[in-house]
Amino acid sequence: MTILVIDDEPVFASVVAEALTIDGNQVTVAHGGEEGLRAIEQHAPDAVFLDIAMPGMDGIEVLRRIRGRHADLPVIILTGWASERQIAEARRLGVTDILEKPVRLKSLTEALARSRPS
Description:
By secondary structure, the chain is of the alpha/beta class. The protein has a single domain, classed as Rossmann fold (3-Layer(aba) Sandwich), CATH 3.40.50.2300. The chain is 47% helix and 20% strand. It contains five helices and five strands. Strands 2-1-3-4-5 form a five-stranded parallel sheet, sandwiched between helices. Helix 2 packs parallel to helix 3 (59-69). The radius of gyration is 13 Å and the shape is globular.
């Protein structure tokens, strides 16, 4: 699969990308919302791992824009401290799954497997 990781924490994004690459995926990393939206258009990923708390454009706004153009693209939220309101809004926008940081690496592949159509 082709996967995009959008997270403003470079070390965390690299660890996630490495784990997904070892699992056989092709991974691109974007370090912010605007960069992530451009990467979606350039790389047409099969799934997106998205942080909520990012400076500038937060993950909820990124998700909103993704849904405006790619309604069926699986998006898995990675968050360290999302509010109940943000989680509710992510669910309303059709997020595929929500994983809390620190995330177990096995959880990444399990969430990805759940995002694939049966």
